[in-house]
Here is the input.
Amino acid sequence: MVVEAFQTVEDRDNPDEVEAIGPFICRRANAWLGEGYYFWDTNIDWAHEWGQRGYLNNYIICQAQVTIDENCFDLVGNLRHQRELLEIIKVFKESGLLTGKGNIYLGQLIQLMKNQGIFGYTCIR
Here is the structure.
């Protein structure tokens, strides 16, 4: 399945550069799903809302076509993947790895699995 997707980026008055080298990777430590390229799926209104909040109305939106296939950990349209994520969280909690370390972001958990080579997907939806 191919979906229309939108990436919201800060407007730095460099549209030619954005078009030439985008999309842009997010490497923030608290990125919701870990390091990666973040797109708004199908709904451009969500991209505008992020631009208004995240970039204080100083933003541009890039459009792309994204393929959702078996390499995608689909938390939107695949119940099996949703259940798999809940099981992963349960296993990590029961392992004691999360005890006493404060809050952990879902992105940190996914990034840990990526770093350990145990996350077999190339994208997350």
Strands lie at 2-10, 25-26, 36-37, 40-41, 59-67, 72-73, 123-124. The chain has two domains: 2-67, 72-124. Residues 72-124 form one domain. The first helix runs from residue 15 to 21.
